[in-house]
């Protein structure tokens, strides 16, 4: 939403060193490199003579690199999902407009959410009244937010 940022980003993306690629392509590069490592290692294994001692080391390296790639891809997908959930929940809450609270953060993720019934006691001078109220809660890894549904 910041016009100055958009202008600078546009200028950077149009620079000859960036070859007119959008910023997103540079953000994806590390993940692409990780996913290519097993392919490279597999090619090295195919070129290594099967009767040499290096072949077993190569196969072990391929196995480990493949395991690392799978773990990084799963972690990355999980983090993106958790962040996306946090963003969606943040957009649903009206109180954010009243109180600046950084709900969306790379170190915060949604753990659980749900609806609860609370009992509120209203004590007057001569009477005592109990009422039920529906609340919706969002439990993040470091904060609990309790809201009322509209």
From TrEMBL:
InterPro entries: DBL_dom_sf, DH_dom, Ephexin-like, PH-like_dom_sf
PROSITE patterns assigned to the protein according to its UniProt record, in alphabetical order: DH_2
Highest rank taxon of the organism: Eukaryota
Gene3D superfamilies documented for this protein: Dbl homology (DH) domain (1.20.900.10), Pleckstrin-homology domain (PH domain)/Phosphotyrosine-binding domain (PTB) (2.30.29.30)
GO MF annotation list: guanyl-nucleotide exchange factor activity
Domain DH: 1-75
Signal sequence extent: none
Name the record gives this protein: ARHGQ factor
Gene: Arhgef26
